[in-house]
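Section 5.1 Outputs to date
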Amino acid sequence: MARQGYLLDTHCWLWWHIDPDKLGQQAFQLIENGNNEIFFSVVSAWEITIKYALNRIKLPFPPDSYIPKRLEKSYMDVLPIHLEHTLRVGQLPPYHNDPFDRLLIAQAYTEHLTVITKDALFKQYKIETAW
């Protein structure tokens, strides 16, 4: 049986590590299930770093140490940003204005991944979502 691939929205990755009770039951179970392939996007690292610098999010350590340390201890795969992902963003309808989310959506579409997200706007795109 092929493993199911899931891409974490940034808030889900943060909640998984900082406050797992904020995750929906299905989201928690999907992330916890070792049979699923879970991806953390470089987009999320970029978003976390920017928001941390702007004091919009708090972390126990700065992102340049916090993110790599969490990834070292996890079974999640890091999804890089490819040219195809960035070009796909320009083909997306303008339902979502957040550039980070638009790139995550483009990655999910291109890589055929289900996005674990609480953001209802993701459902407007032709991608699978879970919460």
